[in-house]
Amino acid sequence: MTPSTPERTCLECGDVIHGRNDKRFCCDQCRSAWHNKQNSDATNFVRNINNTLRKNRRILAELNPNGKAKVRREDLLDRGFKFSYFTNIYTTKGGNTYYFCYEQGYISLPDDWVALVIRQKYVE
Fold first, then answer.
1. Is residue 12 part of a domain?
2. pLDDT band at 62 (very low <50, low <70, confident <90, very high)
3. Calpha distance 1→109 (Å, rounded)
């Protein structure tokens, strides 16, 4: 005779769980729902920032198909580019500052122009 084990319930819906001893959910839907709830509040902020960074990168890539381009700052803003979001900064020995969204970068030029570049391997 085996000792009776306490009845296990699903962490999401509370239904009885059948199967393996280490099972915590009654079905895949409950497992997904529980994990989504756990991650939603903490990751909304991060998700929104990542979406903005990806959008900025996509805009730079669309306007810079050949690796070097020059565009008006207004063109970037019209497409929804947000200049305050970037992944890193590179300052040259001459003091010029490039801002990058992943491998796509830009530097501000006089008269509201922006030069677009793609990160080279030697730029760390």
1. no
2. very high
3. 82
